[in-house]
Amino acid sequence: MGEFKVHNGKFFEYMPSGIQCMSYSNHTLAVGRTDGSIDIWKVTEESWYHQKTLPGSEQRNVQCLAWVKGRLFSAGLQGNITEYDLVKLSPKVSHFYGHGFWCMSASHDKSRLAVGCEDGCVRLYKILEDKGVVYERGFQFQKERIVSLAWHRSGEVIVTGSINNIRVWDVASGQVKQRITTQRLRRRQEVVVWCVTILQDFTIVSGDSQGLTQFWDARTGVSLQSFNSHRAGIFALCVSPNERSVYTAGADPRIVTFSLASTNDRNNREEWTKAWSSHHHFHDVKALSVVDDLLVSGGTDTILRSTALHRLGSDSNSQIIPKRRNDLPFPMKPLPDSPRGQPDSVSATVQCRTMETWLHRERCQRFCRRSLNLIASGPSKLIEIRSKSGEQIICSALSTCGSWLAYSTVEKIRLYKVTLDPLVLHKVPLIPDSVLPSHQLKFTPDLSKLVSVTNQCSIQLVTLDDLHPILFHTFEPMERPISNMAIPSKGSVMAVTDESGLIKLLNFKDPSKEIQTALPRYKPIISMALNYSGSLLFVVYSDRSMNEFSLHQQTYSKMSPKLAKFCTLQWLGRKQSIVHVEYNQTNDSQLILMDNTSLVVLNKQKRPPDDYEPFMMFLLEQERS
């Protein structure tokens, strides 16, 4: 297999952000986090994969999310409703109304948004066809803030939760049709209805700060059933598609399932029963969502967890309860490339609004198949750069020699020249205005250019200079947003792919030489790599299958049929998606594949395995340190 030098970077203390809210529509899940960023997950029959992240801002809080016909909206306590550009990964339009928004929901016909406000008012906003929303009207003011709300399927009724009360509103008049006082377990205790929904048969389901899950008749305001289901407050609630199962979670942090079951009396009535309960998280659960045949949960512990839903029975009235659990990886920003083959290596790490560079002294030992020896000497921090105005860093790059440093926010790219001995950081001030903000950055191996994937689906080449960088060339934009980019260590042709899986080859040394690309398209590509000479392209698809292409012949490589045999059922059934792939720069027959929990070396010269274990050349579990 060969020997490799491995560095376990314990110096990097990554602090992920907790999950605040979720919204699902059309095989796409949006996850809002406490730092204002929004993760976009694509849901397919084979697997889940992280598609993109919309960076957050200190000026924009994400309290709730809503999908409307493929358009994503958010609202927050700072009083703004924002629509996002999913191509540029930035706000398309943001309206500030001066009221803190606690909750938001779209009507079932997707024509209006209803928001619950800090001042006790429910406000309706009409969704414009081109972009943004416009204020329509407000309902009758109440004394208490509105912390939860839901539309009835008819669009004629909205139910809201506040302090000590649940209200049923007539949408046409904006008046209260029914006011329900919540049950109190202790006298003089303030009860906050953190989550509420209304079923098609006008049954209201609520979860409150006492840990009570209650079922109400929306027409009469009568309590149907009440369950002391949680030890602390209930923060999240969702309903199965057939409305016969309800899932709740909160601070304790159990996920509880309630199912509608027939009784044994003569009238054959149906009642809600507590069907299932399990601990899936370690801290508060803030969001729940039913995604196809999965129950997805997330909260303070930052973990997005999916649980397979098992249907009891085959008819439309069957109960649906959770059965199997799976953790989805936290979508970390890819780390910038580190210099290779140098006695003193420099690496870069990126957190939300900070980029750091570290110096590692050469005290490495070799890593073989059954032993792991890590760098003994401690790293030293060289540089720490903080972005301005609270902007989050979208992407970053470090040159192979450590002399150039770049990062991008939603506003612009910033470029730095670094001298290590003595340590000097020089900001390059005159970047042309025509250089657009970037989603991915890489330096070419000869350090002549900075390659940028722009927020307009194009590739830009910037000639490096200490004082006056020049925009060298802008390639024609692709039809879909660019998801991956690969540059060889030697050669002049780079590969890019968009979200649909289309692969395009570009000459970054002489852009005038157009390359006609005829590589086959299969599924979205989540990771890819070029070998040292740039003659082979290895891709990993969203269903975890793999392929290798010969760029000279514009077709599958000789090894590609053999790779299909490596994709055993055990490999395709892995819970984690590959997030990075890399050729061994000295041996094209070896590839290194990584996900969030393991490190795999694939040797193409080996015989395809009969089972899973021989294929795993070595596995580095996340728990090993």
Automatic annotation (TrEMBL):
Gene3D superfamilies membership: YVTN repeat-like/Quinoprotein amine dehydrogenase (2.130.10.10)
GO function term, MF aspect, one: RNA binding
One GO term of the biological process aspect: maturation of SSU-rRNA from tricistronic rRNA transcript (SSU-rRNA, 5.8S rRNA, LSU-rRNA)
GO annotation, cellular component aspect: 90S preribosome; small-subunit processome; t-UTP complex
Region (Disordered): 315-346
SUPFAM superfamilies listed in its UniProt record: WD40 repeat-like
Top-level taxonomic group: Eukaryota
A UniProt-annotated Pfam family: WD40
Protein name: Uncharacterized protein
Provenance organism: Stichopus japonicus
